[in-house]
Amino acid sequence: MKHRIKYILGLVIILGVFIYLMSGTFSDSLQYYLTVHELIDKKDDYRGKQLKVAGIAGEISISSTKQGTLYSFEVIEEGDKLQVEYEGFVPDTFKTGAQVVVTGILKDNGVLEASEILAKCASKYEAKVKE
Amino acid sequence: MIPISFLGSHILALVFPLALYSFLTSFVAEKKSDQGMLYSAGKATFFVFFLLTFAVLLLIGAFITNEFGLIYVAGYSSRSLPLFFKVTGLWAGLDGSILFWTWLVSLYSVIVWSTQKNRNPDWLPTLNGVMSFIILFFVSIMVFANNPFAPSLHTPPDGKGLNPLLQNIAMVFHPPSLYLGFTGFSVPFSFALAALRTRRLDSAWIDATRRWVIVAWFFLTLGLILGGAWAYVELGWGGFWAWDPVENAALMPWLLATAYLHSVIIQKKRGMLMTWNVTLICLTFLLTIFGTYLTRSGIVQSVHAFSEGNLGPFFLGFMQLIIVVSAYFIITRLNDLKSRNRLVSQFSKENAFILNNILFVFATFTVIWGTLFPTVSEWLTGHRTTVGIPFFNKIMAPIGLLLLALMGIGPMISWKKSSWINFKRNLLLPLVLGFFGCIAFWILGIRQWYALGSFALVLFVLTTVYLEFYRGIHALRLQNKTDAWTAFKQLFVTSNRRYGGYVVHLGVLLIFIGIAGCVFKQEVDFALKPGEVYNFAGHSFRYVEPLINEDEHRTSVAVRIEILKGEKILATLIPARNFYKQSEQPSTEASIYHTLLQDIYVIVGNMDTTTSRADLRVTFNPLISYVWVGGFVILLGVVLLLMPSQKGGLKSTSTLASILFMLFLWGYPLSPVYAQGMHVETGEDPFIFLDKDSPRYHQIKEISGKIICQCGGCVRMDLASCTCSFAKGEHNKIMSMLDQGMNEEGILDAFVKKYGMPVLTEPPNRGAFRLGAALPLVMLPIVFILGIILIAKKRRKQDEVLVSGESVPANYLKKFSQEVTKNHES
Questions:
Q1: What is the pLDDT of residues A92-105, one digit of tens each?
Q2: CB contact residues (below 8 A), chain B span 585-644, against chain A
Q3: Closest CB to B307 among A26, A65, A129
Q4: A64 Cβ partners below 8 Å, 6+ apart?
Q5: Where are the domains of chain A?
Q6: What is the average per-residue pLDDT within B596-612?
């Protein structure tokens, strides 16, 4: 009996730590993962929040800033567009027409100020597309 | 010539029924305890391996000969791709990977058969059955969904080329290492099922699979480290791990396998945790399939860009089957899996191991949870929310530190019940050293809790390992009256498991140091014009000059950067971006200044074409070299672990075979000799010297179309399409032969005389050559019929032997029938 109590106690402690860690870290690292369409629908809800937005990169314009290069482009999904600005280094796979996931904060003027761009190359090392 | 696609597809179509036969026959053989049937199944297994080997060679051949008639080859290769990378095209994409994967499982199945035939004959039916079923599963994927030999309707003139990111040496060895690791776990899984099936659940199956698990773990570790190294030098973001779903897919089975490697020690020494071990190994195998499913089905988003595939249902079905079968066997055998011993005290080695296992499982669960969270959250709330890198880091960091602490405590406390005296003797010194180390690091200015904890614990564990070695050597010296070095070597001979394990632990310590270094990572972005200097973190970066190079298949935009400390030039780095013409995608080439204390990692971004102003990113990665050094130490430790120990004798045929195979695998992409000497690309039409309307032009073009260019650089293009200078010379030769009045046949004969038969694109359609062309077509059915006859003959022979009762060991038969009756009774 004594053993059983000890084990249950151990289990409770482990679960407690787990729940604590999960809840504690979740609020910090939780990000909404949206498509452009979902974002345009409820723009006001997401203003000022950390977002991940997925879509296709449109025309990319480049301008020089003091620290490097500013990339302005639209993320497009079936007609819906979101203006994105990003200063820094873009991944090799980033180009017009590439599938992108942009992480950043939505500003009041409706521009997403990106802190990270992930890009997928549409043609290479992918699995077979559904036929 | 038979088209490769036809040949390849038919081989795979042949493997399918053979694997099915092998599986079903093993099943029947076990039910009826029919030795002959079993051997027939074994023959089929060997035949499957033979055919799959042929298929693999065929696909490699297709890559080397630019057989763009195959969709797969056209998708991952091109004419200008160096031969080295063409050969590795086998695992560059999904379809070829599956073929390679299947081949590896098949190779393992053959080794298992050969090594267990005499050792554990009662397990053979289950072993062969399970392995055949796994092969059957992967072959069915190729036959029904992803045929690597699928032909395209129109053969493109050139392939799409290999993604430039994958044209890196680490990426050549990373996939096969991972696959060797992943497939390796199919063997212990089969053993576990065999042990469950026969209820022979003592430590025999643990002993039989020990080396297999270590070898699989070795390759998985190597694969993870190579993947990290590749990401670090090739992807340009200055790190080696990003908790990407694809990385996690490989980490999950690794974590469980590591847990298993530790928990089997308790079963071996104390006869406990038997249910747990069987479950762990089944789960590890399940996770290798789950990982493949995750990355190939499109249910998680990943930068690795595996788009939605059509393989999801296959893998889901297979996973369900694994769960149902393993669960059935474990639940029905619970009685046989009862522990032989009880836990005596909380303060014991057993408990340290159990805690270690809980932490590893917890870590595995965290990784699964974080990877699947986006998908789960979408199901539950309709919103896709992700947890980023911070989530993983925050949970895995304390787990890592706890495991580190256990790594020091576990080996030092005793089995059953540890006493205060034992504790004082073994752990007091390391604890005191760790504590003072912690204070010293604090004074040195290290305030981040993770780094502080890591460094202090590393010191603690290091002291325990030192004490272990010191005591071991001391005892041996007293016993044998030898010097310290001899005693040190003796340790690895007499108890290599223990001390090899410590060497692995040392490697892990080094990796922890490297990871702790990431806390002090510094990064800065800036833009410079040529001649300008930027100061950061005590170093100066001078942009000397832009370097722009253009060759036949890429344009390279690079900058020369000097790193200065004070007035002294530390290093000159040349970070570059290569724009490949084939893929219209740049590839960032980081330039790294390595030292043992830190790496300075520089990449170049956008460069203004008129002013040459370049964007630069400089990253200081302290201590990162320790990760790679630690990796090497782990691999060294594993080699020590695998050495046959003196007590056991040479029981390592399978290990030896695996290591030999590994050497073969590493050697073979390196072996093709570059023969590019004669190939000088001219880029111009090779027939420019001829009037296009003259009959000569058509004549020469037709003849050269039948001859393969021997320049060695273009890889078997015909003379009519190769644009090198060598081909031009050959055209001139053909012209002069025509001028001498020779006909086409005579010219071709002259070429054959000079270079041998392979010079012709296709064998001439006459005489003996016709037979030669038909030979492969004839050979296939002959080989197949021969195989069937051989299997049947062997079976009959076995049956006869069975009847006469000779040459089959009597005890084997007895054991076999005992097992079978036991199974029937239950």
A1: 778 888 888 888 88
A2: 585-588, 603, 605-606, 608, 613, 615, 617
A3: A129
A4: A70, B527, B608, B613
A5: 1-30, 31-120
A6: 87
